[in-house]
Design brief:
about 120 residues; alpha+beta; five-stranded mixed β-sheet; 5 strands; about 20% helix
């Protein structure tokens, strides 16, 4: 089994749709650190699990953006982590750290067998 991991920092703005009072309902921003794990039993024709550039390009589309305009769901850290995992071939785990003390981790169903 081959594994790769890439960490990228992005800046973004968003607001959450919540049924209760919260300062997160208002427009605000974060400098997030995103870590992506990918795995494959075999390497592709280029000798890679996935090209690091592909991972970077996928995450870069979120950088310096208002995520509510880009993503069709409530832009919680959990939902963003899940979305990222679905965008990258061979990805099985995403850690989305929106601030020093707030981290969401998504592990795909296939990924639970890899842990």
């Amino acid at each position: 089994m081959y594994y790769v991991c890439k960490t990228i920092e992005i800046s973004y703005a968003h607001n959450l749709t919540l049924p209760y009072p919260s300062k997160c309902r208002g427009l605000h921003g974060h400098n997030a650190i995103v870590t992506i794990w990918c795995a494959s039993e075999e390497l592709d024709q280029n000798g890679m699990v996935v090209d690091f550039t592909h991972i970077k390009e996928t995450i870069a589309q979120l950088d310096h953006q208002y995520l509510n305009d880009l993503l069709p769901f409530n832009t919680t850290a959990e939902n963003i982590a899940h979305w990222i995992c679905e965008q990258i071939p061979t990805c099985y785990k995403v850690k989305f750290q929106e601030s020093q003390g707030n981290v969401a981790i998504y592990v795909s169903e296939e990924g639970t067998n890899l842990l």
